[in-house]
């Protein structure tokens, strides 16, 4: 995404442009709430730049809003929290949703016990190390994160979706958490293993395997003046408050 935006900006402004984003996502992960910043000559008006960029960008990238930012704004370091939503289809194997949700019926058989799922998910909020749920940490920042919200819900179409908000996320952390919670809810892993992984008492416990990237969406970044967009995934989970 970054390379495509930079290339389009360079074509429009006839000079190399660098884009800074609120964060990176793994290959295959969707970002519907990404925040970016870049510098262009002041003669460019936001409305003109908005139209020009969307005309040049590939069909799978779209600039939803564009405006002038404060000179010292940084989309990553000014962020207070990020929100991810993970979509699971545990009832139907619809080919229409291929590449957009995790279809459990073929890859993770077993009925989800939603009461067990909710109970296990309540263990997550708070500040702790999530080393056991990451491929790699950031040596300069460690592995501790503060989760403000973690909850599962049903969409009007019957999709099961996970909403998680935290001050920061480790590499693949959400995908590891989702797969582990699903294993607990389908009886393939017990709650005590999850508790030990969260406490980093993971000796002898089978490590988590990340859920597929295509079910994961970055749906918002929170700044001092609020979220850059409401929660929800276009076409799958409607916008909602909170």
Sequence-ordered SSE layout with sheet pairings:
Layout: H1 2-13, E1 20-21, E2 30-31, E3 36-37, H2 46-56, E4 81-89, E5 102-103, H3 104-107, H4 114-121, E6 126-129, E7 144-154, E8 160-166, H5 173-185, H6 191-198, E9 216-223, E10 226-227
Parallel strand pairs: 2-9, 4-5
Antiparallel strand pairs: 1-3, 4-8, 4-9, 6-7, 7-8, 9-10
Question: Could you walk me through the main structural features you see in this protein, from its secondary elements to its overall organization?
Answer:
This protein is α+β, with helices and mostly antiparallel strands. The chain has two domains: 2-56, no CATH class; 81-227, Pseudouridine synthase I, catalytic domain, C-terminal subdomain (Alpha-Beta Plaits), CATH 3.30.70. Helices cover 23% and strands 20% of the residues. The chain is built from six helices and ten strands. Strands 2, 4, 5, 6, 7, 8, 9 and 10 form an eight-stranded mixed β-sheet that branches. A two-stranded antiparallel sheet has the order 1-3.
């Amino acid at each position: 995404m970054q390379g495509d935006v930079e290339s389009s900006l360079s074509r429009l402004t006839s000079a190399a442009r660098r884009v800074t984003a609120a964060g990176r996502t793994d290959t295959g992960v969707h970002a519907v709430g990404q925040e970016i910043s870049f510098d262009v000559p002041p003669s460019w008006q936001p409305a003109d730049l908005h139209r020009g960029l969307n005309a040049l960008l590939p069909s799978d990238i779209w600039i939803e809003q564009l405006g002038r930012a404060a000179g010292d704004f940084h989309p990553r370091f000014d962020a207070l929290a990020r929100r991810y939503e993970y979509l699971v289809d545990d009832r139907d194997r619809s080919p229409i949703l291929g590449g957009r949700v995790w279809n459990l019926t073929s890859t993770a058989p077993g009925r989800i016990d939603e009461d067990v799922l909710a109970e296990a998910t309540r263990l997550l909020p708070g500040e702790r190390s999530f080393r056991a749920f990451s491929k790699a940490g950031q040596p300069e920042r460690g592995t501790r994160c503060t989760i403000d919200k973690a909850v599962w819900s049903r969409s009007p179409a019957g999709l099961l979706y996970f909403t998680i908000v935290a001050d920061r996320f480790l590499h693949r952390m959400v995908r590891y958490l989702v797969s582990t919670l699903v294993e607990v809810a389908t009886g393939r892993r017990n709650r005590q293993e999850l508790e030990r992984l969260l406490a980093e008492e993971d000796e002898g416990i089978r490590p988590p395997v990340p859920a597929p990237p295509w079910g994961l969406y970055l749906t918002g970044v929170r700044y001092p003046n609020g979220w850059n967009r409401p929660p929800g995934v276009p076409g799958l989970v409607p916008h909602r408050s909170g």
